[in-house]
Amino acid sequence: MSTEAKFGTNVAINGSRLWDSLMEMAKIGATPKGGVCRLALTDLDKQSRDLFVRWCEDAGCTITVDAIGNIFARRPGRNNALPPILMGSHLDSQPTGGKFDGVYGVLAGLEVVRTLNDLNYQTEAPIEVVAWTNEEGSRFAPAMVASGVFAGTFDLEYGLSRKDLDGKTMGEELARIGYAGDAPIRGRDLGAYFEAHIEQGPILEAEDKTIGVVTDCQGQRWYEVTFTGQEAHAGPTPMSRRRDALLGAARVVDAVNRIGLEHAPLACATVGLMQIHPNSRNVIPGRVFFTVDFRHPDDAVLAEMDAKLRNAVTRVAQEIGLETEFEQIWYYAPVKFDAGCVDAVRGAVAELGYSNRDMVSGAGHDACYLARVTPTSMIFIPCVDGISHNEIEHAHPEWCEAGCNVLLRAVVAKADAT
Ligand SMILES: [Zn+2]
Predict the structure, then answer these.
(1) How far is the CA of 101 from the centre of ligand 1 (A)?
(2) What is the reported pLDDT for 1?
(3) DSSP per residue over 336-380, as a string?
(4) Is 151 within 8 Å of 34 (Cβ atoms)?
């Protein structure tokens, strides 16, 4: 029996309730420019978790929290021996984050639960809404570390020992905010995972499409580089005798950009974080730490970019006489989403008659790790001008509503497909 037959064409989520919840959650960590700053495992993150938990409990869900702080809100099915269908995303944000990145997928999941409650509709398999810890990787690198632990890519000790720039670990901070849970990491089967998310790029809006059916996730490599030269007085030290670590970093920034351009249009190459020591205007920088972020959907190209970066770092260090510490701190191969889950999304989109296109995810998402342990796919909605990781990030209410309607149908189709 299709979901359409069970639901009828009129069944829909409550778009204004979803919108109101998004706006209510956005008050936690609200910034003057209309965005959100809710870094992982801060007091503000705790507040957003508490609100999410309260809303889920109000909707009749049972809450469990695992040892890395992932929150699961379970709505029982008719047959609770069946593995649950998961949906969700993350509640943490970038320092200059928006109201939609991550939180949309979590609250869309909650809205699916609320809608099923309104309909008094019980799915065959149980369904769960999940909020993954520290997706952004801004306070604690790498990104998606807790879904990575969940998927077995990282071990738990690795996840808990990630440090912020002040030396505080994820484990300490989880305990401090009361979200070091006791549920085992996984240890149970899952039926499927669906993640609704804003596109964070310009394609859907530019093509006037409402839904992105996400078929792939691109691969990523993250690096940390430290150049060490020698601090010296900016006045008496002749140019020819300098070992300027920042000059080295600047040359690598340029090389990174060239590597990205050489593999356009699909490659992305970014230096986004840099720390200069001693960071004083009349001292030649003696030490610079910086990061590199490479992305491409083709693993072979990503490997080529890696080789070019290593060459550039070696060459620049020789030119200037710098010592180098170079580490690839994170890698994952491109991911293909599950055909059955992608079909469930396609089927929902077709029933609803939304304009759509297939997409490769340019950003990393928790779904990229979940795909390793359970059938997974994603649903994209547009965001205005493709802007994300920015306080002006915006998605129109009708887009949010449409994506959630797709999520509802895809999840129910999977939960009832037994
Ligand atoms: Zn996100």
Answers:
(1) 4
(2) 45
(3) EPPHHHHHHHHHHHHHHT--EEEEEESS--HHHHHTTTS-EEEEE
(4) no
30: β partners: 36
CB atoms inside a 10 Å sphere around CB 265: 6
Say what the pTM is.
0.83
Q: Which residues are near ligand 1, the ion (C-beta closer than 5 Å)?
A: 101-102
* Alpha carbon of 159 to ligand 1 centroid (Å): 19
Please answer whether residues 94 and 102 qualify as being in contact, where contact means their C-beta atoms are separated by less than 8 angstroms: no
Three-state DSSP at 21 gives helix
Of 198, 191, 244, the closest CA to residue 81 belongs to: 191
Q: How far is the CA of 277 from the centre of ligand 1 (A)?
A: 32
| Chain segment 38-80, per-residue pLDDT in tens | 999 999 999 999 999 999 999 999 999 999 999 999 999 999 9
Q: Which amino acid is at 178?
A: G
**Among candidate residues 138, 89, 40, 53, the one with its CA nearest the CA of residue 400:** 89
CA of 99 to the centre of ligand 1 (A): 11
